[in-house]
Amino acid sequence: MLASPAGKRWAAAMARYIVAILLLVNLVGPAFAQSKQPDSLLELEDQEKKRDAAGVDKQYKSTLKNTDKTATPARTDPWQNMRGANDSKTKR
Fold first, then answer.
1. Which end of the chain is more exposed for a tag (fewer CB within 10 A), N or C?
2. What is the DSSP secondary structure assignment for residue 89, as one 8-state letter?
């Protein structure tokens, strides 16, 4: 099989394109390396803790708003089950 002159030119042109692409990748690669790196695991954990703390604080404040401060608590007698049906002072 004999190689034609057009085939040799095509191979030479493709070799030039490949070399040009490799050089471009080598030049552009460091620019992408300087881009912002993702946050470290510790920073992500701190951000998550802050979000959780803010959520808990928000729930606490909403609970305080919903609590009626003017209402008097119902009076309970802890000894009501211990006394008899009629425990008046006159019987003593």
1. N
2. G
Nearest by Cα to 14 from 4, 2, 6 = 6
Q: Write out the two tokens for 71.
A: 């209402």
- pTM for the full predicted model: 0.36
* Six-digit token string for 65: 């708003």
Q: Residue with structure tokens 């394109």?
A: 17
pLDDT in tens, 12-71: 999 999 999 999 999 888 777 776 666 788 888 999 999 999 999 999 999 888 887 776
CA distances to 41, 42, 55, 64, 83 from 50, rounded to whole Å, are 14, 12, 9, 21, 53
Which helix (DSSP H) or strand (DSSP E) does residue 56 occupy?
helix 41-66
Q: What is the DSSP letter of 81?
A: T
- Cα distances (Å, whole numbers) of residue 33 to 28, 30, 37, 39: 9, 5, 9, 15
